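Morning, I've got a small favour to ask if you have a moment. I owe you a coffee for this, so here goes:
>
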Amino acid sequence: MGIADDFMSSFFEQYPQAQSGKLSMEELNSLLAEYQQKINSKPLADFDGLSPEQMTALLYAPLAPGALLRLSKGIDDYVDQVPIFKLSELLLTEIKNAGTLKLTTKGNLPVHVCKLLYNQELIKWEYMEFNKKIQEEEIPYLWPLKQCLLDEGIVKKRNNTLSLTKYGEKLMEGPKAARFIKLLTYFTGRFHWGNFYGLEDGGKCGNLGWAYSLVLLAKYGSKSNTAGFYSLKWIRAFEKELWDAQQKDNTTKACDSHHRAYQVRFFDCFANWFGVVSIEYTRDYRLPLSHRMKITKSALFDHLFEVTKS
């Protein structure tokens, strides 16, 4: 049976009068709409207790007024604590002060600017102690940050130099929250998460349902959990075949690549860069990769986001 057949079969079970032949088309349509609404509002285990209606809103209208996940009031007072935002402000100030910031022959940020940003020690990552060179291609967040400013039209590149656009100048004169939201919407919308980790999935793992992942973090983040705890919930919601395979053999092997992609993309990069998680790494190589990272929600999370209790 297909999805449509399953739907109609369950519909007739709920409304046996619909098969009586005594109802008008208008009455049948009314019953169908009522049943569809029941299905859409029913909590699902696959969505960790959220309904299809709530999940759809998280996917297509995250942060909207009245949404399950939204920005907290007064975020202007806290955005300076967001690592990637603070680095963005420093970089924009450097570009503004320089007038035209000369890039390297490869088109990268000059070393002195890389050192300025790196030495803030705002963003850490696994194995960063093994990094020997402070230059754009060696620091995970530098190229994405530069690309954000270019893609959003805040800065422009001309003759191998960076300078503020008129729009960028105006944006810098406005409220900090507006610049923070620009960063957030860029990294959750325009930026390809395949750049964070090279799983051949079009950047889907971790990026799809990022707002759902934040809702999970709000729900479970007060207690330390492994990255795999969250990635398995993501897999259950969005990768049905992988979830079924994992359930059959009760191991993580079928999901290993997705666990790793989710861990790096959502936690190591996005959530870490925005300062909404505290990460603890373990080098116990007897553990699967998905269990070597422990996650807790940071205090900053609740200053940036609000989650309506469902």
Observations:
- Residues 201-307 form one domain.
- The chain has three domains: 1-40, 76-191, 201-307.
- The first strand starts at residue 69 and ends at 71.
- The CA atoms of residues 20 and 301 lie 54 Å apart.
